[in-house]
Amino acid sequence: MNKAIMMGRLTRDPLIRYGGQDNQMVIASFSLAVDRKYKSKNNGDVAETDFFNCTAFGKLGEFAEKYLKQGTKILAVGHLQNDSYTNRDGNKVYSVQIILEEIEFAERKKRQEENAEPPASGDGFMHVPDGVNDMDLPFN
């Protein structure tokens, strides 16, 4: 079984490119900063940060292009994939990336505008204005 589940923040805005047979498939690439905690004899709990290259294809790539930006905290689910190539010096270079299968937001979006409409109640659900097309919502 090859499954990776990580929670972290994007280190930069996703890099978007297009591929596939008709060059229409969205491919989003970004780096995810993930804290790794361990116990130190002198300092107690200490966190170090690991950085993972992530790639999302198709509809998930479109989601990343539209909704993700530097600093966004997400939960990423996918599988690990090895890549290798030969550099200019003739040396074989290996890397690992996470091919994403799911992306979820890991924190609430802060209000960007001062005049943003507050939630209708404290039930944790977002207010969706009348007339919004369901296909424009990120959770379809």
Automatic annotation (TrEMBL):
Q: Where is this region: Disordered?
A: 108-140
Source domain of life: Bacteria
One annotated GO molecular function: single-stranded DNA binding
Keywords of the record: DNA-binding
Q: Which Pfam families match?
A: SSB
What InterPro entries does UniProt report for this protein, alphabetically? Answer: NA-bd_OB-fold, Primosome_PriB/ssb, ssDNA-bd
Q: Which GO terms describe its biological process?
A: DNA replication
Q: Which PROSITE patterns match?
A: SSB (PS50935)
GO cellular-component terms in the record?
nucleoid
SUPFAM superfamilies for this protein: Nucleic acid-binding proteins
The UniProt subunit note reads as follows: Homotetramer.
Stated name of the protein: Single-stranded DNA-binding protein
